[in-house]
Each structure stands twice: as structure tokens, then as C-alpha cells.
Input
Amino acid sequence: MKYILLIIAFITVTAHAQRTDSLKQDSTRLDEMLLRQQQQQSQIDSLIRLRLQQELKNASGDAQRTKELETKLNQIQRNDSLRKADQLRKIEALKQTSKPYAIAPFGDTLFYINLGLGSFKAKERADIITDHIRKLYDDEFFKKDSLQLIKNEND
Output
């Protein structure tokens, strides 16, 4: 009887642990999707901001239209700031729960990948990036001086 109770307890604990892991994975996926949605909204806002800035240039002399456009631009900027703060908070939360995968093509870690992107899981992304770096290193025609760092608007 004692063994049966132990087996039942073990199965119950195992099932609970699997449910907990599944919930963590679902939560991580949801956070990743929300981050992607925020990034898309940021890109849309950038396009709107460009259009409003162009309209603002064309509205010179019309004080009311200028004020209206400036108000819209300020609102986009406030929303963007709030969205970036929220993104940073979510990224930090994801870093606490996700496993980082090192990008270390030659032994030394260059950086880490914490999140998947699209259909790629974080590990797959890390493997692909590592492979690309190795291929660049082996490419005789690659000129390392031609590399340029470009700051992303979301960074």
C-alpha cells in the first residue's frame, strides 16, 4: 500500500511539474509575441512620424495646423517612450526565465541570444548566427573593414 501511495505521489508531482513548464513556455511565447507586436507598432509610428514631419514643413504659416501636427508628433513620442520602457521591462523578465545561448564561434562568447524570432527558436538562431560568423571568417573575399554597425531605432 505504501508503494502505491509513493507512485501516485510521484506521478502527481511529475504531472504538476510538466504543467508548470508548459505554462512557463506559453507565457514566454506570449511575451515574445507581444514584443514583436510592439516593434511593429513602433515601425508604423515611425512612418506616421515621417508623414507628420513632412506635413509640418508644408504647414508653415498655418499656426493652428502647425500646433495640431506638433501635438500629434508629441503624442507619438510619448507613446513611443512608454512602449520602449515596457519593452525593456518585458525583455528583462524574459531574460530571467529564458535560457541564453552563447554566440561563441571561436571559443570566446561574443553575445547571447535569449529569444526566438519568427519560427526559429533561440538555440536555432544562435546556431545559425555562429555558423554565419564562421563562414565569414573562412571567406577569402570577406573584408573585415567593410563591416558597419548600424544603430537600430529599437535599441
Summary: Helices lie at 2-58, 63-97, 122-138. Strands lie at 101-103, 111-113.
